[in-house]
From TrEMBL:
Coiled coil: none annotated. Gene3D superfamilies: NAD(P)-binding Rossmann-like Domain. This is HTAI2 Oxidoreductase. One of its GO terms (cellular component) is cytoplasm. One of its GO terms (biological process) is import into nucleus. SUPFAM superfamilies: NAD(P)-binding Rossmann-fold domains (SSF51735). It comes from the Eukaryota. It comes from Campylorhamphus procurvoides. InterPro entries: NAD(P)-bd_dom_sf (IPR036291).
């Protein structure tokens, strides 16, 4: 319940407030595999919020769908740490396949605002996030 409230409801409300305040371009970080019809709660909620944000009616909307985010956390999450170590090693050989550093996602978000869009809604998958995050 808390996950749905934070990741869907609060984000949709923030989008509505941004639009009411004059925002013309909204950038949303979603997730690889987001799908409002998914049987998996996480992917379903991410897909639902994508649909809700698009329905707000921004002039332009950029949706980033990163794979596993690589970052350092202060709190202890042992399984996440193990996964990140594994994916960090895989990234040396296939850097855009399964993961992306959070810094790259942040740079891609900024770059998406600074460059002209290809359409009303741009959806950037993990490889495109890597490319844009390097620009």
């Amino acid at each position: 319940d808390g996950f749905v409230r934070v990741d869907r409801d609060y984000v949709a409300q923030a989008a509505e407030l941004a639009r009411a305040g004059g925002c013309k371009h909204f950038v949303l970080q979603s997730s690889q595999g987001a799908n409002a019809q998914s049987r998996f709660l996480y992917l379903r909620v991410k897909g639902e919020v994508e649909n809700l944000v698009q329905a707000v009616g921004f002039d332009r909307c950029t949706i980033l769908r990163p794979a596993v985010l690589l970052c350092k956390r202060q709190e202890s999450r042992p399984m996440e740490w193990i996964t990140q170590q594994f994916l960090g090693a895989v990234a040396r050989f296939c850097p855009t396949a399964y993961s992306v550093p959070v810094e790259t996602v942040a740079r891609a978000m900024v770059a998406s605002v600074l460059q002209p869009g290809k359409g009303k809604v741009d959806v950037l998958e993990n490889r495109a996030i890597h490319e844009l995050g390097k620009a």
